[in-house]
Known about the structure:
The chain has helices at about 1-25, 40-50, 85-100, 115-125, 125-135, 140-150, 170-185, 190-195, 250-270, 310-335, and strands at about 60-65, 70-75, 80, 110, 110-115, 170, 210-220, 225-230, 235-245, 285. By secondary structure, it is an alpha+beta fold.
Amino acid sequence: xxxxxxxxxxxxxxxxxxxxxxxxxxxxxxxxxxxxxxxxxxxxxxxxxxxxxxxxxxxxxxxxxxxxxxxxxxxxxxxxxxxxxxxxxxxxxxxxxxxxxxxxxxxxxxxxxxxxxxxxxxxxxxxxxxxxxxxxxxxxxxxxxxxxxxxxxxxxxxxxxxxxxxxxxxxxxxxxxxxxxxxxxxxxxxxxxxxxxxxxxxxxxxxxxxxxxxxxxxxxxxxxxxxxxxxxxxxxxxxxxxxxxxxxxxxxxxxxxxxxxxxxxxxxxxxxxxxxxxxxxxxxxxxxxxxxxxxxxxxxxxxxxxxxxxxxxxxxxxxxxxxxxxxxxxxxxxx
Length: 335
């Protein structure tokens, strides 16, 4: 009988520990040390990428220190699939329409209330909300693209022609858009509030600790991206776009961690570290284009506070309950 209860106790403890084990497995250790007294942010990130056998072919980066205005790019002018990060300038278009008195948050856009659609699109990256809002901006696709481009601050010559036909951004395009967002924080306060709630807790949020992050992530086929404002003591803008990178959300999170370490270094050492030699800005280009994004079917938003590790625990608990009569019966025979 005692052996049966011991086995039952062990199984119950194992069930309770499953979510903890899953959570710890989701956050890999961070082992990269940068010496910013000897190397710039760009040098450190390129050294990190080399340690992962990655290069500018598969990783494009844009960074801007909001205090000094210093910028750094890794292949920053190449336009590539931006996945759901298109939802950031899309939301800005609607907030500007609200500010102009053309719309209110209570208006219906298609089958959605505008306020609910904006929250769902930015917090949960809900594709149905994004598609409906994108479809109702303008019947002219070129006009919709021009409205997006206006937030980037780029001239027409700096934008790839493919941008007007595909869902493509570049790191420089996104840094410009984030700058517009940050410089007009009061106007876009609703968007910033939603971006700070953005899920999941990977990408730029992977190693953030207590640091506030307002970001829009996205993934589509082999493209994974994140762009946002990271509110360290010395805030900065960051855009990371990847193509065919295994474990991309973790790689993006680790790049953000290096940038956060650099921001902390700059806060303690105001003198900038040596910057890489600037290179001429290339003509905008594009990586291989994916098939056009299919029209997504609207779906309900994810339940807030859901835990992906719970189903596994529930299955184990069910197994324990099924086995319980047999354990007790076996214990009685032996006692």
